[in-house]
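FIELD: query
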Amino acid sequence: MSAEPEPELAPPTPDQLCDFASLGTSTVYEGSGLDCWVDPGIRPVWPGARVAGPAFPARGERGDNLALQYAMREAPPGSVIVYDGGGGEFGYCGEILASVALVRGVCGLVIDGTVRDIDEMAGMGFPVFARGVAMRHAAKRDPGTRGEPVMLGHRMVRMGDVVVADTDGVVVVAAEQISLALDGAIARRDFERDRLAKIRSGAIPPVKSE
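FIELD: result
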């Protein structure tokens, strides 16, 4: 007897994504109670970069960005491309690819790798999170994979998982845990607002050990 197929998960709504972005990564991480944080070596490449959206994962060979070229052209509008570049210091993404992404409605890029043309990407407001900056030319020979799970640092990212990224770093919320994570993060935000209001009024809380 064949197993019943798992029900297809509903994608996150625009309101949910807006909430994730406004809550921020630290609040989502703390409030959700999930092990969802990503290697802090992956950082915003320009100040103020912020994004939240469903993941479109892609992977390419070290020093080759052909898979990323395809991903920028295939990802559904509203996606955040999550790219495993295989390491190495190469300019996997720059002004031209970022321009393609913006025209197609891609919301941002989170890459386990390096990028270039930082001032230009900041000027166009395209959010990019990467391990660093490198101008070295990337080849275009290996098509890699798109739409299949990838590793972002130590964290697996699947199609449709929600990526939230800002100044504090990156978190990845599994597609089946979106509502749980969002409810927990909102509760955490409300708790912290109340706590901060009391502190600012002069009521310093006692230290609590774990």
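FIELD: remark
The domain at 14-200 is CATH 3.50.30.40 (Glucose Oxidase; domain 1).
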